[in-house]
């Protein structure tokens, strides 16, 4: 799989200097990014494209090629796949559309490609996708993207990796991350996933040392059991937004990427068992990762609200209660300690520090709360009109890591101001109070998932260590709970 993100050599088939050619920007971007691999192109004229040596046929390309990217009309792809096989290219990205998503003729072309791939042992992504990127390796196979568009992301790689069935959604996530504190590690558009699918990529990224959080956009699922097994094997947060959950949405999905959308209730049940955190909106694909990248996970549901503007204490209380979180009632002892630390408007939860408190007093209150065994996490609604308050919030992120408790940070202001705070000070601020609370819910759900996986893993290890007589371990009764993978299989069937 690594060749799809960091090939030592690459051939782009269909890239040319013709106006509007989709492969030419890929060549230009790779050169501009300083990608270290060898890049060749194949086109009818055999012409060089942005410094990438050109050839008329694949067989003329010198040396061993690790990855081929195909950007030619659909009817030419079966022949090109065979030429790739004869060249012993074992990894291909087919970015061309016009296959299973467009009816019988496209399906026949797809079958030809599948047969050729099996004959030559080729693994391929697509068709009908936009490619892959690796920020750490400064590699891109995205078509049509002008050089420089994503330079900021390549210059500041992160640990969020994205698997998407939609190129448009993938591009939205990348552009949105440009205004956040979270960088991306890898992204792959899998399109019709005729060969390599979401499960293959999930398993790869779960073992990728440069990936810390995995986000997925899915419209339909080819092999439910396979996906759930891959998710069950991941110790990293797996965040999934699935579209096509209504009958009308399912029909739209089948016309966009080949396949049928799946039963939503079955998918929900399987996600819970396999350890997938299901997202509620497409925007959560780029807003939720930062709670994992910048903060410890939320290990309990007792949350304290800290604000310097009273109304948002009320707003956040409602949001926490409605989301299943507990705006915990602080003990008299804790409230007295807060009052002794700073002059506050209200020491009960929500804590209103008022508009005049200075940064050091903020920090003293934060430390008291994080030290307390009454509190699992914080949610902030803090106006940041003073530099001392901004400095306090920056230091808060270090305190959260020190005490192993998260804070979801919101600053009540315009989106423009929130983006300014994030961009200029590196504060992992959410854009709305709803986002901030949702981040804590998602973080806590991941913690619960990991705890259950640990219990199930211990149970399965104990079962394996027992001596077996027939099909049942000695000492086991007939009501023993089956392992996670077996339960997922039953849910998907």
CATH domain topology of the domain at 296-431? Rossmann fold
Q: What's the CATH architecture name of the domain at 296-431?
A: 3-Layer(aba) Sandwich
For the biggest β-sheet, the strand order reads 8-7-10-9-11-12-13
Q: Unreliable stretches, pLDDT < 50, 5 or more residues? A: 460-493
- The number of distinct helices, counting runs of at least 4 residues, comes to 18
Structural class determined from secondary elements: alpha/beta
CATH superfamily of the domain at 296-431: Succinyl-CoA synthetase domains
**Residue share in β-strands:** 15-25%
Helix content: 40-55%
Just give the CATH class of the domain at 296-431.
Alpha Beta
Alpha carbon gap, first and last residue: 29 Å
The number of E-state strands comes to 21
**What is the residue-averaged pLDDT?**
88
Radius of gyration: 26 Å
Overall spatial form: elongated
Largest sheet: 7 strands, mixed
What does it look like?
By secondary structure, the protein is α/β, with parallel strands linked by helices. Among the domains are: 128 residues, Rossmann fold, CATH 3.40.50; 136 residues, Succinyl-CoA synthetase domains (Rossmann fold, 3-Layer(aba) Sandwich), CATH 3.40.50.261. It is built from 18 helices and 21 strands. The strands form 4 sheets. The protein has a 7-stranded mixed β-sheet, sandwiched between helices. Strands 3-2-1-4-5-6 form a 6-stranded parallel β-sheet, covered by helices on one side. Helix 2 packs parallel to helix 3. The longest helix is centred in the C-terminal third of the chain and has 33 residues. It is elongated, with a radius of gyration of 26 Å. The protein starts with 8 loop residues before the first strand and ends with a helix.
């Amino acid at each position: 799989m690594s060749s799809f993100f960091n090939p030592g050599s690459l051939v782009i088939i269909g890239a040319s200097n013709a106006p509007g050619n989709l492969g030419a920007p890929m060549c230009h971007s790779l050169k501009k990014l300083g990608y270290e691999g060898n890049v060749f192109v194949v086109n009818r004229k055999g012409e060089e494209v942005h410094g990438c040596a050109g050839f008329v046929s694949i067989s003329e390309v010198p040396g061993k090629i690790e990855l081929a990217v195909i950007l030619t009309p659909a009817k030419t792809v079966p022949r090109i796949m065979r030429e790739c096989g004869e060249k012993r290219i074992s990894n291909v990205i087919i970015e061309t559309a016009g296959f299973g998503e467009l009816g019988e003729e496209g399906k026949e072309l797809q079958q030809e490609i599948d047969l050729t791939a099996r004959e030559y042992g080729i693994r391929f992504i697509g068709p009908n996708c936009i490619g892959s990127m690796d920020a750490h390796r400064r590699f891109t196979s995205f078509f049509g993207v002008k050089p420089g568009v994503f330079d900021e992301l390549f210059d500041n790689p992160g640990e969020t990796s994205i698997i998407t069935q939609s190129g448009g959604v993938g591009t939205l996530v990348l552009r949105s991350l440009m205004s956040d504190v979270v960088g991306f590690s890898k992204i792959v558009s899998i399109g019709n996933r005729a060969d390599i699918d979401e499960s293959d990529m999930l398993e790869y990224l779960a073992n990728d040392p440069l990936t810390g959080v995995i986000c997925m956009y899915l419209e339909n699922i080819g092999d439910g059991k396979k996906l759930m097994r891959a998710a069950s094997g991941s110790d990293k947060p797996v965040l999934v937004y699935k579209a096509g959950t209504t009958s009308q949405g399912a029909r739209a999905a089948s016309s966009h990427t080949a396949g049928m959308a799946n039963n939503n209730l079955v998918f929900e049940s399987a996600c819970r068992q396999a350890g997938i955190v299901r997202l509620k909106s497409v925007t959560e694909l780029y807003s939720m990762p930062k709670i994992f990248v910048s903060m410890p996970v939320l290990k309990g549901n007792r949350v304290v609200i800290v604000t310097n503007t009273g109304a948002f204490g009320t707003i956040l209380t409602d949001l926490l209660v409605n989301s299943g979180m507990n705006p915990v009632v602080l003990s008299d002892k804790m409230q007295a300690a807060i009052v002794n630390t700073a002059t506050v408007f209200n020491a009960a939860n929500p804590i209103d520090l008022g508009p005049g408190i200075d940064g050091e007093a903020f920090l003293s209150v934060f430390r008291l709360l994080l030290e307390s065994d009454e509190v699992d996490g914080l949610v902030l609604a803090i106006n940041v009109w003073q530099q001392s308050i901004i400095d306090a919030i920056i230091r808060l992120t270090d305190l959260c890591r020190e005490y192993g408790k998260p804070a979801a940070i919101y600053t009540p202001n315009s989106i423009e101001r929130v983006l300014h705070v994030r961009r200029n000070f590196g504060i992992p601020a959410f854009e709305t109070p709803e986002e901030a609370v949702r981040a804590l819910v998602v973080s806590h759900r991941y913690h619960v998932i990991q705890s259950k996986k640990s219990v199930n893993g211990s149970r399965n290890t104990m079962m394996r260590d027992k001596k077996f007589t027939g099909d049942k371990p000695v000492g086991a009764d007939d009501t023993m709970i089956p392992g996670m993978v077996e339960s997922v299989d039953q849910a998907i069937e």
